[in-house]
Design a protein that fits this description.
Largest sheet: 9 strands, mixed
Strand content: 25-35%
Number of domains: 1
Organism: Paraburkholderia lycopersici
Order of helices and strands: EEHHHEEEHEHEEE
CATH architecture: 3-Layer(aba) Sandwich
InterPro entries: Acyl_CoA_acyltransferase (IPR016181), GNAT_dom (IPR000182), NAT_camello-type (IPR050769)
Radius of gyration: 16 Å
CATH class: Alpha Beta
Protein name: Acetyltransferase (GNAT) family protein
Shape: globular
Structural class: alpha+beta
Helix content: 10-25%
CATH topology: Aminopeptidase
GO molecular function, one term: N-acetyltransferase activity
Pfam families: Acetyltransf_1 (PF00583)
């Protein structure tokens, strides 16, 4: 199987219309215009509920330097609505050094630092980002897109199942006081209906 390197297209973006929200833009995080500190604060807010349950994920309190390091391990994308970042995820190709055996498989890409601004949750933004991640993986020759979430977070596992993910492993990552559920689904071969690619636009011109 041939795995294609992620092309460097800082202007790549997708736009869609979500009912009741207007235009949602998905684009690469651009450090020339975006702030690692602001992205980190968004992740802190997105993961605060898990932290309140005693499930302390890295994204709940990590420094901006760690957010940047983890994002640069793959391709970091943000969701924009009404001119502000309301969600993010980082998609990585095969991680041959991962402590998770499933992530080491050549056919598997994975999602990390996936978070939605709390007051923007349950509006379809997370679904849009996950659909895009599946397409990103397929475009680069991967057949599976995977992620992990705290095993005790039944509400998150239930959400991922509604998006087509299935449980493939349970892993105890170093430094975490809980088991993580590893879930995976087939990568999408084409864009989800309703999305339109827009390339060549300047960052911020569609927000």
């Amino acid at each position: 199987m041939s795995i294609l390197p992620a092309p460097q297209r800082p202007d790549e973006r997708i736009t869609s219309i979500l009912p009741g929200m207007g235009r949602l833009v998905l684009r690469r995080f651009d450090p020339r215009h975006d702030s690692w500190e602001a992205l980190t604060r968004l992740l802190h807010r997105a993961f605060a509920r898990l932290a309140s349950l005693g499930l302390h994920c890295s994204s709940a309190d990590q420094a901006a330097s760690i957010t940047r390091e983890r994002a640069l391990a793959g391709d970091c994308f943000v969701a924009i609505c009404n001119g502000r970042i309301v969600g993010t995820l980082t998609v990585e190709g095969r991680d041959s050094h991962s402590p998770c055996e499933y992530y080491r498989q050549r056919s598997v890409a994975s999602v990390h630092q996936f978070g939605i601004e709390p007051k923007w949750q349950s509006r379809g933004i997370g679904r849009a980002l996950l659909a895009f991640a599946a397409q990103w993986a397929a475009a680069r020759g991967y057949t599976q897109i995977a992620l992990d979430t705290p095993f005790p977070a039944a509400h998150l596992i239930a959400f991922y199942r509604t998006q087509g993910f299935s449980l493939v492993d349970v892993v105890r990552f170093a430094g975490r006081g809980y088991d993580s559920a590893v879930l995976s689904k087939a990568a999408a071969a084409r864009a989800e209906a309703g999305f339109t690619y827009l390339r060549g636009a300047l960052p911020g011109s569609l927000e």
